């Protein structure tokens, strides 16, 4: 059998294999139900390559290290350090270059393990697989599978390739990591006529990376390696992971460019003025270059790095692990959180929420597979031991159940079908005893669930020797086979009125997004064991009750969503689940209102990218979506200038997580693929931890911004003082060594202390920043300029006054001292742009108090120590004059605090209008 030309390459990923019949599929793949020969498989393996996912281009450690020097401001500092060294200021040059090196080392350490997503995907593929070769079943490495191979599937198998089912016997597959659907999907081999069938609804297909929960099947491989759905996701991750700067990196890059041109402009202006006034060329050169160095806040990279690093530590205490330093600030500027439903907003485990038996509706509390929970009526707990009907329903639920529960690392997990696991927990809460049932009612026979019957039956032998069939299944199908009804008074004939009441309960549960199963039983004759087939057993049944299940929302998710709304952050649900289920959960949590409807993936396919961008703000819930859809949604939000965070745990979330501004993976339930694609990992799988991380991120950005303003305002004051003196023809008020000392004493440790200031408690009451907003806003520049003008004015007044009666060296000493005092005192006011200094406790940042006190001491010492005075070229300054200069240096702080009070009054009288998130 020679391979057709089409097999020289993998089948196109758009091939609708679900629409082809079994015969057509085998014919197109040139295969048969008995599989390929070993020779044929070898030829196809050579032509198409091994069944493994390709890894993207690896980034070397050297490249990661070199990437730390991409920023323009880093190169400004390197040049500044070199110039300082050439000027003989080795201490300042060493400090600047050390800051650059520290920034590079920390950035390298954070990003060294950032590109492992595709490698993690490879771990999800099956190492071995059972295939038909040469007419018999054999186990081969999954990498050796080719198109046309026949897979033999059974419970527990990890599926090694995408395949079209040829046969399916009670086959159910768990596809949550690929589709987001939390329930095990029932599979069959019938042809699907529809063209646009969502991935989660292709019931005659199985996919690489998913697993078999129950049953058996045969399937012909239609795609391997990168042509599989999992391979397409791997490609999307690589595409989504293209290098893109974070908002903070973009803002600092933009600021750095402005800073360069400003510094060059100042140098050119002063150099030109100096030439006109006949200043000595060497002195003019030294002054101009020193001013250019002073214009660059060399402490900024250290401030940013320290602020982000400490933020990472604080976030880890709040269950958020950051994989990149820059992602900390990005999270703080997040305006949209796109979140998966299953396992993120919900527990990720099916849970029985409602029971109906003998005309009574019961509520069941608790989440997931844990035993904690009670049965309630109208919100009041009941004693299940005194509820005989409830026990009867529990016995049927547990009697027809093959699931088992195990506890691993404090977490309960189900072994077997998730639906049966949920029923097992629900039946136990309702008073059932699985061990007693197995001991006193041994299993005699089982008729497994299949998609045609929609029923599952287990026959057990009762203590009196009689056999009873316990049946669970779809309520509508089960009700058609029932002729009797179990009631609290006993069994009686089932009437039309009874049927209507049961149907009404089933409808009510379904409208609450509950998946409903019915339970019934039938007593069998002891001599009927030879006729234990479905058609014979599943007739003339006694209807017992209904069980309503759902993957419930996390208890804390609703509060977390409410906090997001208060902070102006839009929360959007993106899930592979059914639209009705997704909408119900979204409304319960607070993401959607009663007016919102879910947009399904099929409808999303009909929208162009431009149409989606226009409608994106109106849609709160997306359901039945694929990995490609999620990535489109992320990009549409980003096109609308939103800073987007994406949360999730499944493989199908990984491309969107990689493509978002901030990708967030769940630490417990998340796959390794998702974790490696993410910027942040939530260790407790708690949506509330994301909100806490957003708060930290906002606080960090505020600290960086106010520290930058503090640094630039000081530099502005120095530049204004120098420029005015040169323009009016006065001697230079500050020497290069003075400028370098000011930057070292006032811009170094005080700035680092500001960067580590505690977070403002009101930070989550503000609207998020726009992606396009500059770090240096108009208000930022006004405050910076006004502050610089105040400090320059005080220093100029002192310099001008002293220059009339004293030498230039003494005048420089006074101007130098008052400028240092003014900038140090101003650090206290820089802690908040809105709150006056007396409303912020000094004890919340004792480091700042200590650093400013030491800096004051060094400055005073420099005017009383002869050796330090010669180094700084300053003269002796009496202690009383120091106190006077200290008082004069407080004037800028006093005026700035008065301005805060005026602005605060204005805001109180005219509060801003909040936008609806």
UniProtKB/TrEMBL annotation:
<dbReference type="InterPro" id="IPR006068">
    <property type="entry name" value="ATPase_P-typ_cation-transptr_C"/>
</dbReference>
<dbReference type="Pfam" id="PF00689">
    <property type="entry name" value="Cation_ATPase_C"/>
</dbReference>
<keyword id="KW-1278">Translocase</keyword>
<dbReference type="InterPro" id="IPR023214">
    <property type="entry name" value="HAD_sf"/>
</dbReference>
<dbReference type="InterPro" id="IPR008250">
    <property type="entry name" value="ATPase_P-typ_transduc_dom_A_sf"/>
</dbReference>
<feature type="transmembrane region" description="Helical">
    <location>
        <begin position="288"/>
        <end position="313"/>
    </location>
</feature>
<dbReference type="Pfam" id="PF00690">
    <property type="entry name" value="Cation_ATPase_N"/>
</dbReference>
<dbReference type="GO" id="GO:0016887">
    <property type="term" value="F:ATP hydrolysis activity"/>
</dbReference>
<dbReference type="Pfam" id="PF00122">
    <property type="entry name" value="E1-E2_ATPase"/>
</dbReference>
<feature type="transmembrane region" description="Helical">
    <location>
        <begin position="93"/>
        <end position="112"/>
    </location>
</feature>
<dbReference type="GO" id="GO:1902600">
    <property type="term" value="P:proton transmembrane transport"/>
</dbReference>
<dbReference type="Pfam" id="PF08282">
    <property type="entry name" value="Hydrolase_3"/>
</dbReference>
<dbReference type="InterPro" id="IPR059000">
    <property type="entry name" value="ATPase_P-type_domA"/>
</dbReference>
<dbReference type="InterPro" id="IPR044492">
    <property type="entry name" value="P_typ_ATPase_HD_dom"/>
</dbReference>
<keyword id="KW-1133">Transmembrane helix</keyword>
<dbReference type="InterPro" id="IPR004014">
    <property type="entry name" value="ATPase_P-typ_cation-transptr_N"/>
</dbReference>
<feature type="transmembrane region" description="Helical">
    <location>
        <begin position="780"/>
        <end position="802"/>
    </location>
</feature>
<dbReference type="GO" id="GO:0005524">
    <property type="term" value="F:ATP binding"/>
</dbReference>
<feature type="transmembrane region" description="Helical">
    <location>
        <begin position="876"/>
        <end position="899"/>
    </location>
</feature>
<feature type="domain" description="Cation-transporting P-type ATPase N-terminal">
    <location>
        <begin position="16"/>
        <end position="89"/>
    </location>
</feature>
<dbReference type="GO" id="GO:0015662">
    <property type="term" value="F:P-type ion transporter activity"/>
</dbReference>
<dbReference type="InterPro" id="IPR023299">
    <property type="entry name" value="ATPase_P-typ_cyto_dom_N"/>
</dbReference>
<keyword id="KW-0067">ATP-binding</keyword>
<feature type="transmembrane region" description="Helical">
    <location>
        <begin position="710"/>
        <end position="731"/>
    </location>
</feature>
<dbReference type="InterPro" id="IPR001757">
    <property type="entry name" value="P_typ_ATPase"/>
</dbReference>
<dbReference type="InterPro" id="IPR018303">
    <property type="entry name" value="ATPase_P-typ_P_site"/>
</dbReference>
<keyword id="KW-1003">Cell membrane</keyword>
<protein>
    <submittedName>
        <fullName>Cation-translocating P-type ATPase</fullName>
    </submittedName>
</protein>
<feature type="transmembrane region" description="Helical">
    <location>
        <begin position="842"/>
        <end position="861"/>
    </location>
</feature>
<keyword id="KW-0472">Membrane</keyword>
<keyword id="KW-0547">Nucleotide-binding</keyword>
<dbReference type="GO" id="GO:0019829">
    <property type="term" value="F:ATPase-coupled monoatomic cation transmembrane transporter activity"/>
</dbReference>
<comment type="similarity">
    <text>Belongs to the cation transport ATPase (P-type) (TC 3.A.3) family. Type IIA subfamily.</text>
</comment>
<feature type="transmembrane region" description="Helical">
    <location>
        <begin position="258"/>
        <end position="276"/>
    </location>
</feature>
<dbReference type="InterPro" id="IPR023298">
    <property type="entry name" value="ATPase_P-typ_TM_dom_sf"/>
</dbReference>
<dbReference type="InterPro" id="IPR050510">
    <property type="entry name" value="Cation_transp_ATPase_P-type"/>
</dbReference>
<dbReference type="Pfam" id="PF13246">
    <property type="entry name" value="Cation_ATPase"/>
</dbReference>
<dbReference type="GO" id="GO:0005886">
    <property type="term" value="C:plasma membrane"/>
</dbReference>
<keyword id="KW-0460">Magnesium</keyword>
<keyword id="KW-0812">Transmembrane</keyword>
<keyword id="KW-0597">Phosphoprotein</keyword>
<feature type="transmembrane region" description="Helical">
    <location>
        <begin position="64"/>
        <end position="87"/>
    </location>
</feature>
């Amino acid at each position: 059998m020679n391979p057709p030309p089409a097999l020289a390459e993998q089948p196109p990923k758009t091939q609708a294999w679900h629409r082809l019949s079994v015969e057509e599929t085998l014919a197109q793949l040139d295969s048969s139900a008995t599989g390929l020969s070993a020779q044929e498989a070898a030829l196809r393996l050579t032509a198409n390559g091994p069944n493994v996912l390709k890894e993207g281009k690896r980034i070397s450690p050297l490249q990661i290290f070199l990437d730390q020097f991409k920023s323009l401001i880093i190169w400004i500092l390197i040049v500044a350090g070199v110039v300082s060294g050439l000027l003989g200021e080795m201490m300042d040059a060493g400090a600047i270059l050390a800051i650059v090196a520290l920034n590079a080392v920390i950035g390298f350490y954070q990003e060294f393990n950032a590109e492992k997503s595709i490698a993690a995907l490879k771990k999800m593929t099956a190492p071995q697989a059972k295939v038909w070769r040469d007419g018999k079943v054999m186990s081969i490495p999954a990498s050796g599978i080719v198109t046309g191979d026949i897979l033999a599937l059974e419970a527990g198998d990890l599926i090694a390739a995408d395949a079209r089912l040829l046969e399916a016997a009670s086959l159910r597959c768990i596809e949550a990591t690929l589709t987001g659907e939390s329930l095990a999907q029932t599979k069959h081999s019938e042809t699907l006529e529809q063209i646009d069938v969502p991935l989660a609804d292709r019931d005659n297909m199985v996919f690489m990376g998913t697993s078999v929960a129950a049953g058996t099947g045969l399937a012909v491989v239609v795609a391997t390696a990168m042509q599989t759905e999992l391979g397409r996701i791997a490609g999307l991750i690589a595409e989504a992971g293209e290098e893109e700067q974070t908002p903070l990196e973009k803002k600092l890059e933009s600021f750095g460019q402005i800073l360069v041109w400003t510094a060059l402009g100042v140098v050119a202006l002063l150099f030109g003025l100096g030439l006109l006034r006949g200043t000595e060329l060497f002195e003019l050169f030294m002054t101009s270059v020193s001013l250019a160095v002073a214009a660059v806040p060399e402490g900024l990279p250290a401030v940013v790095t320290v602020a982000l690093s400490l933020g990472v530590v604080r976030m880890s205490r709040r269950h958020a692990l950051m994989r990149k330093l820059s992602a900390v600030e990005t999270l703080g500027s997040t305006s949209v959180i796109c979140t998966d439903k299953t396992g993120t907003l919900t527990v990720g485990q099916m849970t029985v929420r409602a029971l109906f038996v003998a005309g009574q509706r019961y509520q069941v509390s608790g989440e997931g597979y844990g035993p904690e929970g009670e049965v309630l009526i109208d919100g009041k707990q009941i004693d299940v031991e005194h509820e005989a009907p409830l026990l009867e329903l529990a016995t049927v639920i547990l009697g027809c159940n093959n699931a088992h529960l195990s506890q691993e690392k404090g977490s309960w997990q189900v072994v077997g079908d998730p639906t049966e696991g949920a029923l097992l927990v629900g039946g136990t809460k309702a008073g059932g005893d699985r061990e007693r049932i197995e001991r006193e009612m041994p299993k005699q026979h089982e008729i497994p669930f299949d998609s045609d019957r929609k029923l599952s039956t287990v026959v057990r032998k009762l203590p009196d020797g009689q056999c009873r069939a316990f049946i669970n299944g779809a309520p509508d199908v089960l009700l058609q086979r029932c002729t009797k009804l179990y009631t609290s008074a006993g069994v009686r004939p089932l009437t039309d009125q009874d049927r209507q009441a049961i149907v009404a309960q089933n409808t009510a549960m379904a409208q609450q997004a509950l998946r409903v199963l019915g339970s019934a039983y039938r007593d069998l004759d002891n001599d009927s064991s030879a006729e234990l087939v479905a058609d014979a057993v599943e007739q003339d049944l006694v209807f017992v009750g209904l069980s309503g299940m759902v993957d419930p929302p996390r208890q804390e998710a609703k509060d977390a969503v409410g906090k997001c709304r208060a902070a102006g952050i839009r929360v959007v649900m993106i899930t592979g689940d059914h639209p009705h289920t997704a909408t119900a959960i979204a409304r319960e949590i607070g993401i959607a209102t009663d007016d919102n409807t879910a947009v399904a993936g099929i409808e999303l396919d009909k929208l162009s990218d431009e149409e989606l961008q226009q409608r994106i703000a109106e849609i709160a819930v997306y359901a039945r979506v694929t990995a490609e859809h999620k990535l489109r949604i992320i990009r549409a939000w980003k096109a609308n200038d939103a800073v987007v965070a994406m949360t999730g745990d499944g493989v199908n979330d990984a491309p969107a997580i990689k493509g978002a501004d901030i990708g967030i993976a769940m630490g417990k339930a998340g796959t390794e693929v998702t974790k490696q694609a993410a910027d942040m990992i939530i260790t407790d799988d708690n949506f509330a931890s994301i909100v806490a991380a957003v708060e930290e991120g906002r606080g960090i950005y505020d600290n960086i911004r106010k520290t930058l303003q503090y640094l630039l305002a000081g530099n502005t004051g120095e530049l204004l003082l120098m420029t005015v003196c040169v323009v009016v023809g006065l001697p230079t008020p500050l020497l290069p060594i003075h400028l370098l000392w000011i930057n070292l004493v006032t811009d170094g440790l005080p700035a680092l202390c500001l960067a580590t200031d505690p977070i403002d408690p009101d930070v989550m009451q503000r609207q998020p920043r726009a992606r396009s907003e500059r770090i240096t806003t108009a208000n930022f520049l006004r405050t910076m300029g006004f502050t610089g003008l105040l400090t320059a004015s005080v220093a100029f007044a002192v310099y001008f006054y002293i220059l009339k009666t004293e030498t230039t060296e003494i005048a420089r000493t006074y101007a130098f001292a008052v400028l240092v005092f003014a900038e140090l005192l101003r650090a206290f006011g820089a802690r908040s742009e809105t709150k006056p200094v007396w409303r912020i406790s000094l004890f919340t940042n004792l480091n700042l108090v200590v650093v400013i006190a030491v800096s004051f001491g060094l400055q005073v010492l420099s005017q009383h120590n002869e050796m330090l005075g010669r180094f700084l070229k300053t003269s002796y300054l009496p202690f009383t004059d120091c106190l006077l200069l200290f008082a004069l240096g407080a004037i800028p702080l006093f005026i700035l605090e008065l301005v805060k009070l005026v602005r605060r009054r204005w805001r109180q009288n005219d509060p801003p209008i909040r936008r609806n998130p």
